[in-house]
């Protein structure tokens, strides 16, 4: 009897121990399951992805921005802007903001090239892409250069941005001052008579300009100051004012004849019997071909003055005249010249 009781007691003890072990195992297993569920629940995140203002909510178990975007098949270009950065760790209810770049065409420095730029103003795009601009030989000055569209304009997809390089420079140059022409009228000469008494000479001035260049080419210049270095000398022209209409022997008074003019001297008489004379400011003596200029005509010889056709000569044929001078030296100094001879009046008409 006692032995049987011992066996029963041992069986009861053994069974309670097994129950205890089973209970412990169940508790541990349940704890692991609960912990796993909690852990998985903590890893689950609700993320809002915004692309150019358009939002999309996703549920993810990924930890970084890069992994979340890849798992949602969102591809990025080199110039796209992502906030927070791709390697940032995410927590629940966080936002990922993506600003897409847009294609832009840049024209400047004789070149055309394309870039991807973030939306914003033209100025922001140029500042952000300075490296690309410099690589293409473009350096812009926002205060000087002409940029279209305007710097504060909002960029649009496939827009063309034109950059015109503007440069200002101060330039000093020497320039001529044009001479004026003064007309001295002479009623004793025919209206067809016109001769230069003294040649005009240009003066010179130093002028300072502000010159504007666009893309290396001069666009405009504005005079800032001028300084006269040499004054001009006026041209003086003698002009006849009388219309001599009388003609004789087929020769019209007032007609201008181009003649070769030689010179002679000596006190002997002339073929007309008139004593030769050289009177500056008065009437001097010349030898002519009477078939061209009638004897006794009053004429004006360019560079010589007023004279009377009072002599002839065997060598004076056609459009030739021989001018009288008071000395041999003066006649030699004259030499041979081509002059205009104006017939002022025929013989007996003055």
In brief, what are we looking at here?
Residues 163-243 form the G5 domain. With 350 residues, the chain is an alpha+beta fold. The protein has helices at residues 2-43, 65-71, 122-128, 130-135, 328-334; strands at 45-51, 54-60, 81-83, 95-99, 101-108, 111-118, 146-148, 159-164, 166-177, 181-190, 194-198, 203-214, 217-230, 235-242, 247-248, 251-252, 256-264, 284-288, 298-301, 305-311, 320-324, 337-345.
Description of the structure:
- There is one protein chain.
- The longest helix is centred in the N-terminal third of the chain and has 42 residues.
- Helix content is about 20%, strand content about 45%.
- The termini are far apart.
- The chain is an alpha+beta fold and about 350 residues long.
- The chain has five helices and 22 strands.
- The chain folds into five domains: about 40 residues, no CATH class; about 55 residues; about 60 residues, Roll (Ubiquitin-like (UB roll)); about 70 residues, Resuscitation-promoting factor rpfb fold (Single Sheet); about 100 residues, Barwin-like endoglucanases (Beta Barrel), CATH 2.40.40.
- It is rod-shaped.
- The strands form six sheets. Strands 17-21-18-20-19-22 form a six-stranded mixed beta barrel. It has a four-stranded mixed β-sheet with strand order 2-1-4-3.
Quickly list its features:
single chain; 350 residues; alpha+beta; Ubiquitin-like (UB roll); 5 domains; six-stranded mixed beta barrel; 22 strands; 43% strand; rod-shaped; transmembrane helix; RlpA-like_sf
């Amino acid at each position: 009897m006692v032995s049987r009781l011992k066996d029963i007691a041992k069986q009861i003890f053994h069974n309670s121990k097994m129950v205890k072990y089973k209970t412990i195992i169940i508790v541990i297993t349940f704890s692991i399951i609960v912990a796993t569920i909690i852990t998985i629940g903590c890893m689950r995140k609700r993320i809002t992805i915004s692309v150019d203002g358009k939002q999309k909510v996703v549920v993810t178990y990924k930890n970084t921005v890069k992994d979340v975007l890849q798992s949602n098949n969102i591809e990025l270009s080199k110039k796209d802007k992502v906030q927070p950065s791709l390697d940032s760790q995410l927590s629940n209810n966080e936002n990922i903001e993506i600003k897409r770049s847009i294609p832009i065409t840049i024209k400047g420095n004789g070149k055309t090239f394309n870039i991807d730029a973030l939306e914003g103003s033209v100025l922001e795009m140029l500042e952000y892409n300075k490296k690309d601009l410099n690589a293409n030989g473009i350096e812009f000055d926002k205060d000087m250069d002409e940029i279209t569209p305007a710097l504060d304009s909002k960029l649009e997809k496939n827009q063309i941005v034109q950059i015109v390089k503007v440069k200002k420079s101060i330039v000093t140059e020497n320039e001529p001052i044009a001479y004026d022409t003064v007309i001295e009228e002479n009623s004793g000469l025919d209206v067809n008579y016109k001769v230069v008494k003294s040649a005009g000479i240009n003066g010179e001035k130093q002028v300072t300009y502000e010159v504007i260049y666009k893309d290396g080419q001069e666009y405009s210049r504005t005079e800032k100051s001028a300084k006269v270095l040499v004054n001009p000398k006026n041209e003086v022209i003698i002009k006849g004012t009388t219309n001599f209409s009388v003609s004789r022997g087929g020769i019209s008074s007032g007609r201008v004849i181009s003649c070769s003019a030689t010179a002679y001297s000596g006190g002997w008489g002339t073929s007309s019997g008139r004593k030769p004379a050289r009177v500056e400011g008065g009437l001097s003596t010349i030898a002519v071909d009477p078939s061209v200029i009638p004897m006794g005509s009053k004429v004006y010889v360019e560079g010589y003055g007023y004279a009377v056709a009072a002599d002839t000569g065997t060598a004076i044929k056609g459009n030739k005249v021989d001018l009288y001078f008071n000395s041999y030296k003066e006649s030699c100094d004259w030499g041979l010249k081509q002059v205009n001879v104006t017939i002022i009046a025929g013989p007996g008409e003055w």
